[in-house]
Amino acid sequence: MAGLDKRVNTYEEALAGLTDGMTVLAGGFGLCGIPENLIAEIRRRRVKGLTVVSNNCGIDGFGLGVLLEERQIRKMIASYVGENALFERQLLDGELEVELTPQGTLAEKLRAGGAGIPAFYTATGYGTPVAEGKEVREFRGRRYILEEAISGDFAIVKGWKADHFGNVVYRHTAQNFNPVVATAGRITVVEVEEIVEPGELEPSQIHTPGIYVDRVILGHFEKRIEQRTVRA
């Protein structure tokens, strides 16, 4: 059983093998459920030329936004730009290659990548710039475009609890993109708020089975709130 223990003690160990030019898949939505410490370790390692796949690119000064500051991202595949002024500026200035993808299509690209499905047809984006250069087929009188799946060299994921064997539970809306990202990395690294003993997680409550996870690390999180709305 000891050979199945996937815990690592340092973030340096957690991202061992990450090098320039790799594709990194990052879980999270806005600032909810982002692997903030793994992102900080990518920054510390100064790797360059990355292709990063995530719903969005954090905000200025936090989350994936810190990798933009250091010019570590060459290409961003995302569905949303809005909260990051630096992202917008680098896109408009031609510094950053951006592939904007409908949100549901992005989720399915990652799910398909994790399931070993190379491509799929979807009606989303047909007749828009999203469909340019893509194969179109008609099914039952409706036209669909062919979208290729996404997988990556590393998947970085934020969980709530995990056991020694990499079985992961997410907390509420922090599931978002994390479960599909976790399946689609050649090396999947999960940082969590608590690591429990084997057998403590109820099997029916596990969101990501340990078969998908290569490394687990215990982290401490700032958990910034993107937009705080309170009553006067």
From TrEMBL:
<dbReference type="GO" id="GO:0042952">
    <property type="term" value="P:beta-ketoadipate pathway"/>
</dbReference>
<dbReference type="GO" id="GO:0047569">
    <property type="term" value="F:3-oxoadipate CoA-transferase activity"/>
</dbReference>
<dbReference type="InterPro" id="IPR037171">
    <property type="entry name" value="NagB/RpiA_transferase-like"/>
</dbReference>
<dbReference type="Pfam" id="PF01144">
    <property type="entry name" value="CoA_trans"/>
</dbReference>
<dbReference type="InterPro" id="IPR004165">
    <property type="entry name" value="CoA_trans_fam_I"/>
</dbReference>
<comment type="pathway">
    <text>Aromatic compound metabolism; beta-ketoadipate pathway; acetyl-CoA and succinyl-CoA from 3-oxoadipate: step 1/2.</text>
</comment>
<dbReference type="InterPro" id="IPR004163">
    <property type="entry name" value="CoA_transf_BS"/>
</dbReference>
<keyword id="KW-0808">Transferase</keyword>
<comment type="similarity">
    <text>Belongs to the 3-oxoacid CoA-transferase subunit A family.</text>
</comment>
<dbReference type="InterPro" id="IPR012792">
    <property type="entry name" value="3-oxoacid_CoA-transf_A"/>
</dbReference>
<protein>
    <recommendedName>
        <fullName>3-oxoadipate CoA-transferase</fullName>
        <ecNumber>2.8.3.6</ecNumber>
    </recommendedName>
</protein>
